[in-house]
Amino acid sequence: MMFEKQRDLIVKYCNKMISTGLTRGTGGNVSIYSREDELVIISPSGIDYETMTTEDVVVIDLDGNVVEGSNRPSSEYGLHTVFYRNREDINSVVHAHPIYSSTLATLGMEIPSAYYLNAVCGGPNVRCAKYALNGTEELANNVFDAMKDRYVVLMANHGLVAGAKDIANAFNKAEEIELSAEIYYKAKLLGTPNIISDEGVQEMLVAFKKYSQVTTK
Ligand SMILES: [Zn+2]
């Protein structure tokens, strides 16, 4: 079987999406890109995360053709491959339907730098990509455009996408941005949140380069 290590990571992080509340049911999907092989290791479509095994994970090419595996790949694979084709800094994508991010996305809102770790998105705001039908190239392109110079983006009326150099960092960004969305939402209920300046965010991004990479185990 190809890519056993990556298959293990896909199963592990799919289960982690459920245990951390980043998604419910079979919502969301995760992938890892093997850039040297131009192949994507991705979660399958419609399989319960709790019973998913490494054999259930699917290997596809950048056009979505199955290279190894008996399941269909996630129907949202286009949200992953658009980044692997066009962003050399992204080798893993996590797509989830977390409550607070999805709530803000349903309002068409972006997430400003209210909570300081919002800066893990790579800039002063997490933008919200325009709505399009799930599973379409139009949606993948909207998400890609809205994630320019960023590592996380909201998807209108749907959820969140995070990308990074590896799956641990992509997952970490998804978790931090969901926490940021929750804090922003709750702060707005009590008053007007203070927003960190663009300069303040830039200072943090410089500091992150030195200190805050998570590592894959
Ligand atoms: Zn989705």
UniProtKB/TrEMBL annotation:
<dbReference type="GO" id="GO:0008738">
    <property type="term" value="F:L-fuculose-phosphate aldolase activity"/>
</dbReference>
<protein>
    <submittedName>
        <fullName>L-fuculose phosphate aldolase</fullName>
        <ecNumber>4.1.2.17</ecNumber>
    </submittedName>
</protein>
<feature type="domain" description="Class II aldolase/adducin N-terminal">
    <location>
        <begin position="8"/>
        <end position="185"/>
    </location>
</feature>
<dbReference type="InterPro" id="IPR001303">
    <property type="entry name" value="Aldolase_II/adducin_N"/>
</dbReference>
<keyword id="KW-0456">Lyase</keyword>
<dbReference type="GO" id="GO:0005829">
    <property type="term" value="C:cytosol"/>
</dbReference>
<dbReference type="GO" id="GO:0046872">
    <property type="term" value="F:metal ion binding"/>
</dbReference>
<dbReference type="InterPro" id="IPR050197">
    <property type="entry name" value="Aldolase_class_II_sugar_metab"/>
</dbReference>
<dbReference type="Pfam" id="PF00596">
    <property type="entry name" value="Aldolase_II"/>
</dbReference>
<dbReference type="InterPro" id="IPR036409">
    <property type="entry name" value="Aldolase_II/adducin_N_sf"/>
</dbReference>
<keyword id="KW-0479">Metal-binding</keyword>
<dbReference type="GO" id="GO:0019323">
    <property type="term" value="P:pentose catabolic process"/>
</dbReference>
